[in-house]
Amino acid sequence: KNRRLKQAKAAAQAEIEQYRRQREKEFKAKEAAALGSRGSCVEKETQEKRTILQTYFRQNRDEVFDNLLAFVCDIQPEIHENYCING
């Protein structure tokens, strides 16, 4: 009796797994059909934005680095306003 129950359980699991794979395959097909043309459009848009950002980066890289270095290297020692000399 236990053996038959185990066999039935294994058969049911296999059937469930097969059904799940089939439904997933159908879903992927519908998803690809719905997003097929839109997906390539989004990809193209993303590539264009990426190209524009890379161009801006190349144009402004040297200026940003120069400003950053100037800010970091411009040392002006001063006493903090909350420092009390006489304790």
From TrEMBL:
Residues 2-29 form a coiled coil. GO terms for biological process: synaptic vesicle lumen acidification. Gene3D superfamilies: 1.20.5.2950. Keywords: Coiled coil, Hydrogen ion transport, Ion transport, Transport. One of its GO terms (molecular function) is proton-transporting ATPase activity, rotational mechanism. GO terms for cellular component: synaptic vesicle membrane; vacuolar proton-transporting V-type ATPase, V1 domain. Belongs to the V-ATPase G subunit family. Subunit of the V1 complex of vacuolar(H+)-ATPase (V-ATPase), a multisubunit enzyme composed of a peripheral complex (V1) that hydrolyzes ATP and a membrane integral complex (V0) that translocates protons. V-ATPase is responsible for acidifying and maintaining the pH of intracellular compartments and in some cell types, is targeted to the plasma membrane, where it is responsible for acidifying the extracellular environment. V-ATPase is a heteromultimeric enzyme made up of two complexes: the ATP-hydrolytic V1 complex and the proton translocation V0 complex. The V1 complex consists of three catalytic AB heterodimers that form a heterohexamer, three peripheral stalks each consisting of EG heterodimers, one central rotor including subunits D and F, and the regulatory subunits C and H. The proton translocation complex V0 consists of the proton transport subunit a, a ring of proteolipid subunits c9c'', rotary subunit d, subunits e and f, and the accessory subunits ATP6AP1/Ac45 and ATP6AP2/PRR. PANTHER family: V-TYPE PROTON ATPASE SUBUNIT G 1 (PTHR12713:SF12), VACUOLAR ATP SYNTHASE SUBUNIT G (PTHR12713). NCBIfam families: V_ATP_synt_G. This is V-type proton ATPase subunit G. The lineage of its organism: Eukaryota, Metazoa, Chordata, Craniata, Vertebrata.
